[in-house]
Model the fold of this input.
Amino acid sequence: MFFAEPPAEQSDTRFRIAPAAGDAGWDLLDEFTGACVQTYDDREWAQGIAESANREEDAARRAAVASMDLPGLSADLIEEEQFRSLAAELATAGHMPYGLADIDYTQTPGFHIYPSAEPGTAKVARLLEPWGAIRPGARFEGTEREVERYDEDLEAYARLLARPGRTVAVMLDGIQVTYNNPPTRP
Done:
């Protein structure tokens, strides 16, 4: 996991947009780190994303809580300890969580854990940009080596996550992890 100390003087606005550096479009910039979070083609869309991120950041600051944004884990699973542990297990084994600002995801695949429709179940996707390279089925349009690499990564995720108390299945679009006795929320 990655931790950073926030600057002594924090701006009221953490995220802002600026013309993309050396490219067409608009960069979403994190004022705390100076990093480009994402580049968007549409200025209005980028501004909406920045405003939404700033509202979330402001709410967390007013509530005096740490950011719950964890790389490699969808926002709706952050509160779920068992799914946070999946992200930690994959990251500590050397797999790259998706969502880090300084990683070139066109070269380095990242994992992303998101909820399944079934209770106690999550999916683990292997993400590689451009986005078309990660959609279910689209991997078959890649080169033979890309498809082989995708399959190798999924198998590595599955081996790592296979533990007593969970069922792990390799699917075409990722890994499905089901807890045999999922914890119940109070």
